[in-house]
Amino acid sequence: MTQTRTKNQVLNWAMNNGALVGLIALCIALFIATPYFLTVANLLNIGIQAATVAILAFGMTFVIVTAGIDLSVGSVAALGAMVSAYMFAEAGLPGWLTLLIGHCAAAKADEEAERNVPVEVVTVTAENVEDFQ
Known about the structure:
The chain is mainly alpha-helical. It has 2 domains: 1-38, no CATH class; 51-131, no CATH class. Helices cover 74% and strands 0% of the residues. It is flat and about 65 Å long. The termini are far apart. InterPro entries: ABC_transp_permease. It is a multi-pass membrane protein.
């Protein structure tokens, strides 16, 4: 009886955590397929590449929790990357100065919070402004 109960608990856990089970299965398959998957260099590379998406997802979590919608996150990130690259390469400005790029997102948040502009209007406007290059 306990074996059946334990087996059912494991199956229920696997069904409730399907994404985690899939990730573990993918890691095992990649580890078997290539000897370089679980190296420190590769794991650092994966972490570096996933950092930007993780930061954007973390911010979007707060937007969703507050019952907002913000479709311009990708556009704001692309604008920030483009301006940072220009400031480093062409303008020769120091790296600390590129932190001011965060003002784009802050100004957008100010429009939504302080001026009571609907979130959808600010989102569409921000996407249009940032896509106009």
